[in-house]
Design goal:
Largest sheet: 4 strands, mixed
Shape: globular
Bound molecules: glutathione
CATH superfamily: Glutaredoxin
Order of helices and strands: EHEHEEH
Radius of gyration: 11 Å
Strand content: 15-25%
Strand order of the largest sheet: 2-1-3-4
Distance between the termini: 10 Å
Number of helices: 3
CATH topology: Glutaredoxin
Low-confidence stretches: none
CATH class: Alpha Beta
Helix content: 40-55%
């Protein structure tokens, strides 16, 4: 199983879409709210830009909510 961390903002509709998918499919993983400046800084440092949601897969960033949902559907149970 890959090491997964989701960077998200509770106010972002694209983040909410991913969170809803996770809830509906009983998927839990490490979460980082980017309203915390430390988490926001880490996302920009590693990903190269601020955009949520972003799923870190073994430390590598995957942006785009649809791509994240597709990945979770295939890899996270
Ligand atoms: N196409 C992207 C859109 C994501 C997006 O636009 N997220 C907004 C927040 S809702 C964002 O991070 N905007 C950059 C910013 O706020 O600087 C997706 O589906 O994940």
């Amino acid at each position: 199983m890959d090491n997964l961390t989701l960077y998200y903002s509770p106010f972002c509709p694209f983040s909410q879409k991913v969170l809803r998918y996770m809830e509906n499919n009983n998927i839990t993983l490490e979460m980082k709210d980017t309203n915390d400046p430390e988490n926001r800084g880490k996302l920009v440092e590693v990903g190269g830009k601020y955009q949520v949601p972003c799923l870190f897969i073994n430390g590598k960033p995957l942006y785009e909510s649809d791509d994240i949902i597709e990945y979770l559907g295939q890899n996270a149970k």
